[in-house]
Design a protein that fits this description.
This protein is an alpha/beta fold. It is built from 15 helices and twelve strands. The strands form three sheets. It has an eight-stranded parallel β-sheet with strand order 11-9-7-6-3-2-1-12. It has a two-stranded antiparallel ribbon with strand order 4-5. Helix 3 packs across helix 14 and helix 14 crosses helix 15.
Length: 394
């Protein structure tokens, strides 16, 4: 059982009190100050903070499955911030509820338990297993008013909450620029080609989920709607097809306070990243410069699955993790779909803790992500504080 972690606010104050001088001093004096920081934030505490940045998938659908037992152990030790369900994890609604109860019971800190339940083609929980089907976003926008859609989405959120899910990785707010888009338009995953319509329906989606205690994530920032390729299967480049109207749903929903999380997209967009090689999900110019500084988003940025081929075919595991965190992602998803790696949390912790030892800016990024995630979790459980990791007894 992990030790209680106390006084994180004190550590944060010490950290940020030094951050400006660290940035201004890349010479040997900076190493002295970095050493002082690490005397305050020891390796165990640092790894606990990193754990809040890792969300994983697992193999298995029963409480005695090896993959499930492993993530329960990782949750108990504070190595993960949450889990994501795929179809392989779901046999019945009763079984899912049982798995989720077990995960939360033993977790060191309340977990984010996530699922992709957009509606239409993208539903992990289906009518065949007794879960009421939800229409696709395209169908909803064509056949319902926003008010009626809100009622549909309240039913969806209530059902998710009843099973123990507290994060729906939706809605898609990609503008349907290219109806032939193989991963968005052709699957009916966009509300509309009109940004204002997308915004209106996304807003009721978010509000409906919040009313039932379920968080949401707007995706795929800064826009996947114009792509001609599927980023699950390789890198998609939207540099020539993307336009700034695709930012409007994000901009307006952020301004109105209707955004818990934003999911970063594995698409090349050199109009924003100024690079023909680095995807938006790994671009500091896009996630920090645009989303944080320009659009004033203060919530959690979560990556799309870091094991999608857009990433794995082009960038090493180590480089992708470091770039993703430096870019501004607070949580990294490793769905462990095609090539499951049950030790991802441990590998990420080792990689980031080593990087933080050498780079004060990385240490600051980890601290900031930790604060963002814990602030989000307080929406689910007000007793969660930035000062402590809650250790739950069996």
């Amino acid at each position: 059982m992990p030790q209680r972690i106390t006084s994180y606010i004190a550590f944060a104050c010490a950290l940020f009190g030094l951050s400006s001088s660290l940035k201004a001093d890349p010479v040997p004096g900076a190493h002295i100050q970095t050493a002082k920081l690490h005397s305050i934030i020891d390796d165990a505490r640092l790894r606990q903070m990193i754990g809040q940045m890792v969300l994983v998938g697992f193999v298995g659908s029963e409480p005695d499955a090896e993959g499930y037992a492993r993530v329960v152990g990782q949750a108990e030790e504070g190595k993960i911030t949450g889990v994501i369900y795929l179809g392989r994890n779901i046999d019945s609604l009763k079984q899912v509820r049982q798995l989720n109860e077990g995960l939360q019971r033993f977790a060191a800190t309340p977990l984010l338990i996530a699922v992709d339940q957009e509606g239409g083609r993208i539903q992990r929980l289906t009518g065949a297993m007794g879960f009421k089907d939800t229409p696709s976003e395209a169908t909803v926008a064509k056949s319902m008013s926003p008010a009626k859609a809100g009622a549909v989405y309240q039913n969806l959120a209530s059902a998710l909450s009843g099973l123990g899910f507290n994060l729906n990785l939706a809605p898609v707010v990609d503008v349907n620029v290219n109806p032939a888009n193989p991963i968005i338009g052709k699957l009916g995953r966009s509300f509309s080609a009109d940004p204002q319509t997308v915004e209106a329906y996304a807003k009721v989606f978010v509000e409906a989920h919040r009313a039932k205690g379920v968080l949401t994530a707007l995706k795929h920032f800064p826009g996947h709607g114009s792509s001609t390729k599927d980023s699950h299967k390789g890198m998609a480049d939207v540099s020539k097809t993307w336009s700034d109207k695709e930012l409007l749903p994000y901009k307006n929903l952020i301004a109105s306070g209707d955004v818990d999380m934003v999911m970063s997209a594995h698409v090349i967009n050199d109009k924003l990243s100024f690079s023909t090689e680095i995807p938006s999900s790994l671009s500091r110019a896009t996630l920090t410069g645009l989303l944080r500084d320009n659009m004033h988003f203060k919530g959690v940025v979560i990556s799309d699955d870091m094991q999608m081929q857009a990433i794995t075919d082009n960038i090493s595991f180590e480089d992708s993790v470091l770039r993703a965190v430096r870019a501004g992602n607070d949580i990294l998803i490793f769905a462990n779909d095609k090539h499951p790696d049950p030790l991802v949390p441990e590998k990420v912790a080792a990689l980031l803790s080593e990087a933080a030892r050498k780079d004060p800016e990385m240490l600051e990024r980890i601290q900031k992500s930790y604060e963002n995630v814990m602030r989000l979790k307080r929406k689910l459980a007000p007793a969660v504080s930035e000062e402590t990791t809650i250790v739950r007894k069996r």
